[in-house]
Structures are given as C-alpha cells and as structure tokens.
Amino acid sequence: MTVRLAPSILSADFAHLARDVAAAEAGGADVIHVDVMDGHFVPNLTIGPPVIKAIRRAATVPLDVHLMIDNPDPYLSAYVEAGASMLSVHAEVLPHLHRTIGAIKALGAKAGVVLNPSTPVSAIENVAGDVDFVLVMSVNPGFGGQTFIPRALDKVRTVRAMLDRAGTGAFVEIDGGVDLTNIARVVEAGASMVVAGQAVFGQPDAAAAVRALRAAAVAGRVDVG
Ligand code: DX5
Ligand code: ZN
Q1: Which residues keep their CB under 5 angstroms from ion ligand 2?
Q2: Whole-angstrom Cα distance, residue 60 to residue 52?
Q3: Beta-carbon contacts of residue 67 (< 8 Å; ≥ 6 apart)
Q4: Of the residues 10, 135, 136, which should be mutated to test ligand 1's pocket, given the most ligand atoms within 8 Å of the CB?
Q5: Going by C-beta distance under 8 Å and a sequence separation of 6 or more, which residues neighbour residue 12?
Q6: Which ligand does the CA of 65 lie closest to?
Q7: 158: exposed, middle or buried (C-beta count within 10 Å: 0-12, 13-18, 19+)?
Q8: DSSP 3-state of 6
Q9: Assigned fold of 4-220
Q10: Residues marked as catalytic
Q11: Ligand nearest to the CA of 88
Q12: Per-residue pLDDT of the chain (225 residues; tens, 9 = 90+)
C-alpha cells in the first residue's frame, strides 16, 4: 500500500504559508491538507476560499480541503473553484449525504466523508460505494496538536473492510494526533493517506519532519505487505 502524506497547514505560520507549503513539498508531501472551520460545527475559525486560492497558487501538489462547517452544500463550488482537488464533508451535519457526495463529484473533485470520533461507521454504510475516500478523525476536530485517540485504529480497520466490500477502490485517510510514534500503526490499520499538523509544522524543519514520518510509516506498510 502506498502511503500519502498530507501535512495540515493549521499548524503552519499563516503569515508564511507559501514558504511552509514549499518546505512540506520539499520533504515529499503528497497533498496539502487545509482545515476550514466555521466556529459553529467546531469551536474554532480558520480560513475560506480566498486563502485557499492563494495556497493553490503557491502549492504544486493537490489540495485536500476538510470542511468542518455546519452547512457545506452552498459552498462546495466555491471550494472546488478555489482549488480543492479533494473535498471532505462531515457525516454529522448532512441529512442528504448521498446528494452532497454527488455534488462534489459533479464539480470534479474527489469526494470524502468525515467521521468524528463519536460517530459510528454505520452512519456511512449506505454511501460506501459512492465516496472516493473516508476521513477518520482521531481527535475531536477544531484544533491542531491534540492527543491521538487510540480507538480510531479499530475504526480505520472497520472502514477499510467496509470499503473493500464496496469494491470501489476508495481509500481511508486519518486526521488528528498522528506523529512518529503512531504513524506505523495507523498505516498498518489501513489508512493510506495520513494528515499531520504539529508533527510537520510544529517541528523546526518541516521538510525533515515529512521525511521522518514517511520513514516511520514504512514500518506499517511492510506489516501489511
Ligand atoms: C483538526 C484538524 C486537523 C489538524 C491536525 O481539527 O482537522 O487536520 O490540523 O493536526 P495535528 O496533526 O496536529 O493533530
Ligand atoms: Zn483536518
């Protein structure tokens, strides 16, 4: 299994985003993870389409935009137009999840559904065949630098098995508290895209941090063959 690394700019220096994105890319980042927060769904506010547009100009890899907002439907096109190649929405806020996934795909982006730590995998069983990826939260969303919730490993396994049954080639992404001490285990559990904020931009050398995460992830990859 190839592991893709997705540094989260939430822990970057917002006054030097282009510099920090370039450092992550120099270390081998596969995508840049962008956290959008609305102050309602999560207790924090971040950025919107204009800043994503600016990051799009600075980055050379795809942007993975994680929408932590209550009412994403009216804004999907704005985020794709701003430069999101991957767009994920939370299952907790969407009564018509199937419709939203279809809308994201119709805009030309990869469609992802996100599960909070307290949300059961069963909530997305009926869209397992429709999504391009499932993002498993291993912290309660809202802030970078939180502690990894170990139960997320079982959830990654359950989601991976569900997607295998659906047989579509969709992948599992994991987000929250991933660092050098646990990245091998999340990969072994079945996550093939790994978000890391503090473990990249909270380190003195972001490029070196991405390289170290990849080296540590290889242990997990070898375990699954
Ligand atoms: C949390 C965000 C994460 C966050 C991860 O709400 O969705 O993407 O930036 O940061 P770390 O890796 O520091 O937990
Ligand atoms: Zn995120």
Answers
A1: 35, 66, 175
A2: 13
A3: 36, 75, 79, 87, 88, 89, 90
A4: 10
A5: 20, 21, 201, 206
A6: 2
A7: middle
A8: strand
A9: TIM Barrel (3.20.20)
A10: 35, 175
A11: 2
A12: 689 999 999 999 999 999 999 999 999 999 999 999 999 999 999 999 999 999 999 999 999 999 999 999 999 999 999 999 999 999 999 999 999 999 999 999 999 999 999 999 999 999 999 999 999 999 999 999 999 999 999 999 999 999 999 999 999 999 999 999 999 999 999 999 999 999 999 999 999 999 999 999 997 664 443
Residue 219 amino acid letter = A
Ligand 1 pocket test, candidate residues 5, 8, 66, 89, most atoms within 8 A of CB: 8
What is the identity of the amino acid at 148? F
